[in-house]
Amino acid sequence: MGEAASPAGEFTLRVYRQDPAGASVPRYDPFRVPLLPRMTVLDAVAYVQSRLDPSVAFRFSCRAGMCGTCAMVVNGTERWTCRTSIATLGSRVVTVEPLRHLPVIRDLVVDMTPFFAKFAAVEAAFAPKAGKAGPARILPDAPERRAIAPHIECITCGACTSACTMLRWDPEYLGPAALNRAFTLIADSRDALGPRRLALLDGEHGCWRCHTQLTCTEVCPMDLRPSEAIQNLKRMLAARALRQVWHSLGAAADEGAAAPVEPAPPREGPPVPAPPPRPARRPGLAALLTVVLLAGAVGVAFLLWAGASSRAAPPAVVAEGAHSPLPVAGLALYRELQCGACHSILGNGGKTARDLWRVGARRDAGRLARLLRDPEEVIPGSGMPRYHLPEPELAALVAYLSSLDLGAARSVRVQPEAARGARLLLASGCLGCHRASGAGAAQGRPLAP
């Protein structure tokens, strides 16, 4: 954080303070901090500690968005403080708090021991199968690789665990981070503990505790989808239950067929006439109940699949020709805000609201901005939530929606890394001086043609 640049004003940083060892009552201490160019929340907390109050405790390491140790709750939302620009928050009062659902050591520092204990509970270490001499050959387009890839880059920052509302009511719940890791191992054909690990998740504190509120997916800085991984685990458990019922029915039938029949002892006296032949028996109550149970299990499995599909992340596409970082950053915002839960793009996504492909031809940028600021004012009764977005993020989301026209009949896919990079570029404030593909200011050297 440079000191040469003059501050562009001041803002208030409210810091959560608590010292459990000293039995102090939690409080918020306000500090007036100069707003320096490109200042992040982590910069602001470091400024307070180094200039105003050296007793403020917080944790950080790389300052480059790679380790995740600086994760905190900023204005009510879990964020990496090293990647959160003060300017993008759009507020002159910034409140920082420790991660939720973890013991506070002091101020903004939490004890991560319970967090990693959940990883140990699901046996989160890879265990190779016996007899595998060489490396497994899994092609890049293999189904299991495609299933695991969206969940593999977790850096255990704890943001998803802090955002999970179910951990407030059930502290023993394994949580989204541990369950996400468990899914990546269970879905891996090279792992030897899949069945045992899956059994560990089938309980009161396992994946059934998740209510699919998607808060973990919304705050993940790595754009992972823990809620989708948990839904996949539920489908695996439902399939396992169906197989167990089927095997138990088959075993019962085999046991009944193999039971020996003892001959009746000889009778004295006149012979007893043979009874008339019985009519063919209709399926009894037990068979009917079996069919009903199987149908119900199939229905539950289908509902789990449909629920996960309706909440899946929207397709990572932009219109062909949209090369500016603004629409790509807007794509990342579109995913963060879970717009795809209601809207679809090219038929992919939710079904309760209209498809947004070519929305740029139906709505100009100004109307889209007004709609995102106050949906009820533009379309009364739409039911669309109101987003309080800072202007840079609003402009990026409008640019993305507008790019879905461009007179293009085709779309191009955007890699998650590219969308995340454009989002970080927007949040960093670099476009305040530099230009990149037509976006930003012209004072600095262009970052891209």
* Helicity, as a percent range: 25-40%
**Mind telling me which CATH architecture of the largest domain this is?**
Orthogonal Bundle
Head-to-tail CA distance between termini: 28 Å
User: In what range is the share of β-strand residues?
Assistant: 5-15%
Can you lay out the helices and strands and say which pair or pack?
Layout: E1 10-17, E2 27-34, H1 41-52, E3 71-74, E4 77-80, H2 86-89, E5 93-97, E6 104-106, E7 109-110, H3 113-121, H4 143-148, H5 159-163, H6 166-169, H7 176-186, H8 194-201, H9 215-219, H10 226-258, H11 285-310, E8 317-319, H12 325-336, E9 344-345, E10 348-349, H13 359-362, H14 365-373, H15 375-378, H16 391-403, E11 411-413, H17 416-428, E12 435-436, E13 439-440
Parallel strand pairs: 1-5
Antiparallel strand pairs: 1-2, 3-4, 3-5, 6-7, 8-11, 9-10, 12-13
Helix pairs in contact: 3-7, 7-8, 7-10, 10-11, 12-16, 12-17, 14-16
Structural notes for this entry:
This protein is α+β, with helices and mostly antiparallel strands and 449 residues long. It folds into three domains: 10-109, Beta-grasp domain (Ubiquitin-like (UB roll), Roll), CATH 3.10.20.30; 113-128 and 143-232, Fumarate Reductase Iron-sulfur Protein, Chain B, domain 2; 317-440, Orthogonal Bundle (Cytochrome Bc1 Complex, Chain D, domain 2). The protein is 40% helix and 11% strand. It contains 17 helices and 13 strands. The protein has helices spanning 41-52, 86-89, 113-121, 143-148, 159-163, 166-169, 176-186, 194-201, 215-219, 226-258, 285-310, 325-336, 359-362, 365-373, 375-378, 391-403, 416-428; strands spanning 10-17, 27-34, 71-74, 77-80, 93-97, 104-106, 109-110, 317-319, 344-345, 348-349, 411-413, 435-436, 439-440. The strands form five sheets. The protein has a five-stranded mixed beta sheet with strand order 2-1-5-3-4. Helix 3 (113-121) runs parallel beside helix 7 and helix 10 (226-258) runs antiparallel to helix 11 (285-310). The longest helix has 33 residues, at 226-258. The chain is globular. The two termini are 28 Å apart. The model is unreliable at 1-6, 308-322 and 406-413 (pLDDT under 50).
